[in-house]
Write a structure and sequence with these properties.
190 residues; mainly alpha; Hypothetical protein af1432; 0% strand; globular
Length: 190
């Protein structure tokens, strides 16, 4: 992490909001497990995990009152929250990050295959493979984490929601992610 220059960005997130920091660590762990489960090469596993570690760095630019609001965000607050991917991209790019995979993942981890995502409204083939994997990990983490506005969902409930997101997420990747979660649960139970 230090050799890759990510420590200062993680420190930025941690100093601003511990919940976002914990979320980034969880998503990175899920991404590492998923990449390993899929048989990715070590360099590709590192690329995905590296991107996952800083995918939400832009949340350090979101007002704290919005980031940790205990209830549902109104339209204006939601619009501000939706700026975090582009803000994170700009923070990293302007700070000297030049890894295109990391920059792509940070900017596009909320894009959906049907074009309904943000910030660029990308569709299907415009969304890179590692971004697709990261998006699944990010959504699962958000569903299974305790948030100020909701309790955590059980793993199987979160996986069912992912399975129902056909058209937005790649169904086959969602199923493979579920397999990686179940395999990880079995391994930790043993």
């Amino acid at each position: 992490m230090a050799a890759g220059g990510l420590s200062r960005w993680l420190d930025t997130v941690w100093a601003y909001d511990d919940g976002t920091y914990q979320h980034c660590l969880l998503v990175a762990g899920l991404a590492a497990n998923f990449a390993q489960h899929l048989g990715f090469s070590r360099p590709d596993q590192r690329r995905l995990t590296r991107a996952a570690l800083v995918h939400d760095v832009g949340k350090a630019r979101i007002p704290y009152a919005i980031l940790n609001k205990p209830g549902r965000l109104d339209d204006a607050e939601q619009a501000i929250m939706r700026t975090h991917p582009a803000a994170g991209f700009e923070l990293l790019r302007d700070g000297g990050e030049c890894d295109p995979v990391t920059l792509d993942a940070v900017r596009h981890h909320h894009e959906m295959l049907d074009g309904s995502g943000y910030p660029d409204g990308l569709r299907g083939p415009e969304i890179g493979d590692l971004v697709r994997l990261l998006t699944i990990c990010d959504i699962y983490a958000a569903l299974t984490e305790r948030r100020s506005y909701k309790p955590p969902l059980p793993a199987e409930d979160a996986l069912a929601i992912l399975a129902g997101m056909g058209g937005k997420l790649e169904v086959r990747l969602g199923a493979a992610f579920g397999d990686s979660i179940r395999a990880g649960a079995l391994a930790s139970a043993a």
